[in-house]
Fold this sequence. Notes:
Elements: H1 16-27, H2 31-37, H3 64-85, E1 95-99, H4 105-114, E2 117-122, H5 125-138, E3 144-148, E4 161-167, H6 175-185, E5 186-199, H7 208-217, H8 224-233, E6 236-243, H9 245-255, H10 265-274, E7 277-286
Parallel strand pairs: 1-2, 1-4, 2-3, 4-5
Antiparallel strand pairs: 5-7, 6-7
Amino acid sequence: MTIARTPAPTKVLRTEYQKSVASYWNKEKDPVNLRLGDVDGLYHHHYGIGEVDWSVLEGPADTRDERIIAEMHRLETAQADVLLDHLGDVKPDDRLLDAGCGRGGSSIMANARFGCHVDGISISEKQVEFANREADRRGVADRVRYHFRNMLDTGFETGSRKGIWNNESTMYVDLFELFAEHARQLEFGGRYVTITGCYNDVTGGRSKAVAQIDQHYTCNIHPRSQYFKAMTANGLVPISVVDLTPDTIPYWELREKSSVATGIEGPFLDAYREGSFHYLLIAADRV
Length: 287
């Protein structure tokens, strides 16, 4: 099935904030993303979940860091697998949208699993160029393509998507605007999935640790309740909510011991352990 495309919006970066975020990611060459992706050529821009194989800390000292990097990559790929598990019944003729695709790893995984068409979008031109090179290298560019577009106004057709996801990218946009655009693009009964960090409303606002995370990534972490308010307002009905907080703490504990630690590990661990920050998966159907 071929779906005609409308032209991309002529102005992708519409605010000074969006320009600053795009500039950050255009310049970003963090080893915590690149070295992990070098393990098998699958480049992610998110964190990991699952039990750590702590035996990676044992054995020859000269290969210890290599073992840690490989284990971190295994955990981040496991996280993407869990997100894809919640997309529902996706067929090869369906189209998916990876909103805030980073360097494109999750889109590659979705195509490999479902055989479907996947479009990834980012406001970072450097990420889009990188991701398209990887799709070409893997021979899947006919079904996986990345675009320099804004997730709040993609230019894609109404009702053209069987599924859409955000993997740790919702903290850069207004949720009501985002979910309105996602709902527009989803077909009736289509599935939306996000994995995201959100602050705990019960604690009364952003903790010091959460504020440090915001500052580090130039983002604006939303309260947990805002996700459900914005979904409800836009015809997205949650079908599954999973608290992944306990499952991501081991990843951060391992990352803290790695050569690619950036200094933000402490605030993440503090926020998770004190309960001011949650790592959630939310899956919702378009009604």
